[in-house]
Amino acid sequence: MTNITKEFTYNVTDDQYSMTAVNTEIATATYVGAAFKNIVIDSETNCMTGGTVEDSQWDNGEFNNQLDGQYAVRVDCDADTLICALVADGGRFDVATWPEQSEVVSGCPIPYVRNNPMLPDHAIEVIEVRYDRANATFVKPYPWKRTIQDWPDLLKQRMSQITSGDVNVSEDLPTILITRMAKWKKWLRDLPANAGASWNIVTATAGTGYSVGDGILINDPVFKNNGSVPDILLTVTSVNAGTGAITGFTHSNAHCYDYQLNAATHNSVFYTTNSAGTGAVFNLSKVETVMPHKITLLRNPIENNDAYDTRDMSLYDALPE
């Protein structure tokens, strides 16, 4: 097998997995690998599978004579270098020497680290690159790489972590571990708001005459960003015994990762209520939404077996009370 070394360019997204390219940035890399690759294509979709076949199978025609829903195409890597670089078999580029960048992530104590520029197969969704059999070419533009994590999935993982934490706490744990558990669970509870996935709701004016269990429905269209968005329900959990001023509440439907990505503030939002209380004023605010793949969930400090976390338990100690 003959190898070649070839510099090539490719388009990258504005941020890793953003699937947008407003900035029209172009990256450069060096391909080191086979001069030709026999790239496997799905017969039904005509999209790349990410695999290749050996030259021996290509030369004798064995692979393309099988009725297994796939066929292979011979690609000249000097002419179609990016396509060859998207497939690992037969060599492509040296990831070990690729530069990296680190980014501080809002609401997360662990920075997000990625290659810079992003790797070709982190910019392009390989298994959606389509081959035009009639014209013997790969169809451009190539599809952007899809996100590897979304907020609903991350929130499910977060809730699973919170549940595990509730099970593991016991009075005979060392004091330092009890403290870490308390900080860790608070960090998980606060994560959606701190990472811009939900609204942060505060009482600007506590009002008077409210009772525990009162419902307050924030239905002001100003926070819904012109979308069909559920109202936010607040349930009063504590009040001042003398005045009935609201001192605590829970909320539901406050997630906004799917309709409000930018930072925003809405003061004195409109609401309706079943309460006899009056005068409460609520403000909504949020930070810019963090892309969920940039967030690393800290493990339960009792069950922690993550190499990063184990080396640095001070991450838990530094979490807010």
Describe the 3D structure.
With 321 residues, this protein is an alpha+beta fold. The protein has two domains: 3-138, no CATH class; 153-293, Thrombin, subunit H, CATH 2.40.10. Helix content is 19%, strand content 28%. The protein has helices at 55-59, 81-85, 120-123, 151-168, 175-194, 307-311, 314-317; strands at 3-12, 25-34, 36-42, 48-53, 70-76, 100-103, 112-115, 131-132, 137-138, 200-205, 215-218, 232-239, 246-252, 264-266, 271-273, 281-286. The strands form six sheets. A four-stranded antiparallel beta sheet has the order 13-12-11-15, with no helix packed on it. A hairpin with a 5-residue loop joins β3 and β4 (48-53). α4 runs antiparallel to α5.
Biggest sheet details:
4 strands, antiparallel
Please provide the ordered H/E string of secondary-structure elements: EEEEHEHEEHEEHHEEEEEEEHH
Low-confidence stretches: 305-309
Class from helix and strand fractions = alpha+beta
Strand order of the largest sheet: 13-12-11-15
Helical residues, percent: 10-25%
N/C terminus separation: 61 Å
Number of extended strands: 16
Short description:
The chain is of the alpha+beta class and about 325 residues long.
How does the SSE layout of this entry go?
Layout: E1 3-12, E2 25-34, E3 36-42, E4 48-53, H1 55-59, E5 70-76, H2 81-85, E6 100-103, E7 112-115, H3 120-123, E8 131-132, E9 137-138, H4 151-168, H5 175-194, E10 200-205, E11 215-218, E12 232-239, E13 246-252, E14 264-266, E15 271-273, E16 281-286, H6 307-311, H7 314-317
Antiparallel strand pairs: 1-2, 3-4, 3-5, 6-7, 8-9, 10-16, 11-12, 11-15, 12-13, 14-16
